[in-house]
Design a protein that fits this description.
Layout (H helix, E strand, L loop, with lengths): L1 H29 L3 H81 L4 E10 L7 E4 L12 E3 L5 E5 L8 E5 L6 E6 L5 E6 L5 E7 L9 E4 L9 E2 L7 E9 L6 E8 L8 E5 L5 E2 L10 H7 L33
Antiparallel strand pairs: 1-2, 1-13, 2-5, 3-4, 3-13, 4-5, 6-7, 6-9, 7-8, 8-12, 9-11, 10-14, 11-12
C-alpha cells in the first residue's frame, strides 16, 4: 500500500515538471509573436502609472529621509560650533583678564617707583563692599611682608583707599576703606585750602563736614588729605599730606550756619581695584620726637602749610645769688 502511494507521488511530480517545462518552452516561443508583444505592451501601459507612483513615493521618502539626516547633521555641527564658540569666548575673556591684570600691574609698579614713600604692592583677594558690615578689603600681604596696623593704603594713581586694620595676620591684612562710615580723614580743597572732616556714607560716597562757611567750596574741585600737624604737639594726621581723596560733586550752604558741607566722590575705584600700595615709611598719629633734637618750625610748616609755628621758649638758666650770711650765734660747719 505504501509502495503504491510513493510511486503515484513520484509520477505526479514528473508530470508537473513536464508541464512546467512545456509551458516555459511555449512561452519562450510565443514571446516573439505579435500577440505576446501586444499583451506585454498593454501590461506595461496599465502598470506605468503604478510604477510612476511607486517611483515618486520612493523618491519622496528618500528625499524626506535625506532631509532628516541633513538636519541631524546640521544640529550636530551647530552644537559643535556653539561649544567651540563658547570655548573661544572663555579663552578670550581669560586673555582680556590677563591683559588687564598685566596692565594694572604695570601701572602699580610704575607708581611704586615714582612714589615719594616706601610702599609694598599688594593684591586685593577678598572684597566686602556691601552695606552690611564694614567696607573692607583683604590683601595678600601681612606681617611676613612688613605690613603694620594703621598704615595708609592708596591706589596706583595716588588716591586714598583706606588704612590697615588690627590685627594683621602673617600673610594677609584687612583694609578699612575710606568710604566706610567709621573711617574719618581730615581733607582740604586743593584749590582754596578749605579744611573739613571727611567721613564715609552708606551710599559709598564721602561727606565733607565742618567746613568754615567763609571758605570756598566748588563743585568739581579735588579734595586731598590735609596731613595736619598740631603745632607744639607730637600729633600728626594718620594720612600723609597731598593724597587724593576725591572730587566734590555737590555743596550745601546755609547762610544761618557757621559751617558748610559737601559730598565727595571717592577718587579710587573701590569696586574694581585689584592692586594697591601700602605706605610703610609714614608715621602718623602720636609720634615720639628724637631726644637729641625737636622738630623745627620750618619742618612743621612744610608738613602743614597752614600751621603757625610755635615760638621757641628760651631756656632760663638760674643766676647764682650772693651767699647768705648765717645769723649770729650759729656756727657754720667747716666744709668736708
Amino acid at each position: 500500500m505504501t509502495s503504491r502511494s510513493g510511486n503515484r507521488l513520484l509520477r505526479g511530480q514528473w508530470v508537473v515538471y513536464g508541464l512546467l517545462v512545456t509551458l516555459s518552452v511555449g512561452m519562450m516561443g510565443a514571446s516573439g509573436t505579435h500577440f505576446a508583444g501586444t499583451i506585454q505592451s498593454d501590461a506595461n501601459y496599465m502598470l506605468n502609472p503604478v510604477e510612476g507612483a511607486l517611483n515618486d513615493t520612493a523618491d519622496t521618502v528618500f528625499s524626506y529621509w535625506s532631509a532628516i539626516i541633513q538636519l541631524d547633521n546640521v544640529r550636530t555641527q551647530n552644537e559643535q560650533l556653539r561649544q567651540e564658540n563658547q570655548t573661544l569666548n572663555e579663552e578670550l575673556s581669560r586673555m582680556n583678564a590677563i591683559s588687564q591684570l598685566n596692565t594694572d600691574w604695570t601701572k602699580v609698579s610704575q607708581a611704586q617707583q615714582s612714589s615719594q614713600y616706601q610702599t609694598t604692592i599688594a593684591r586685593v583677594v577678598v572684597r566686602n563692599i556691601t552695606d552690611i558690615g564694614p567696607r573692607t578689603f583683604i590683601i595678600n600681604r601681612g606681617l611676613a611682608d612688613g605690613i603694620s596696623a594703621g598704615e595708609v593704603v592708596m591706589d596706583a594713581g595716588g588716591a586714598v583707599v583706606g588704612r590697615v586694620l588690627s590685627p594683621v595676620q602673617t600673610y594677609d591684612a584687612t583694609i578699612l576703606l575710606v568710604n566706610d562710615t567709621s573711617a574719618v580723614v581730615i581733607g582740604e580743597e586743593a584749590d582754596t585750602g578749605a579744611i573739613g572732616t571727611i567721613q564715609g556714607e552708606i551710599s559709598g560716597l564721602l561727606q565733607m563736614s565742618y567746613v568754615n562757611s567763609t571758605d570756598k567750596l566748588s563743585k568739581g574741585q579735588p579734595v586731598v588729605t590735609a596731613g595736619m600737624v598740631l603745632a607744639g604737639e607730637d600729633v600728626r594726621s594718620p594720612y600723609p599730606p597731598g593724597l587724593l581723596i576725591g572730587t566734590i560733586i555737590s555743596v550745601s550752604r546755609d547762610p544761618n550756619q557757621v559751617v558748610q558741607s559737601a559730598v565727595v566722590q571717592p577718587a579710587a575705584d573701590l569696586d574694581n581695584i585689584d592692586w594697591v600700595l601700602v605706605i610703610s615709611n609714614y608715621q602718623g598719629g602720636f609720634t615720639s620726637p628724637e631726644p637729641s633734637a625737636s622738630p623745627s618750625p620750618s619742618a612743621s610748616s612744610s608738613l602743614n602749610p597752614k600751621a603757625t609755628p610755635t615760638p621757641a621758649i628760651p631756656k632760663v638758666t638760674p643766676t647764682p645769688g650772693p651767699t647768705p650770711t648765717p645769723p649770729p650765734g650759729l656756727v657754720t660747719p667747716p666744709p668736708h
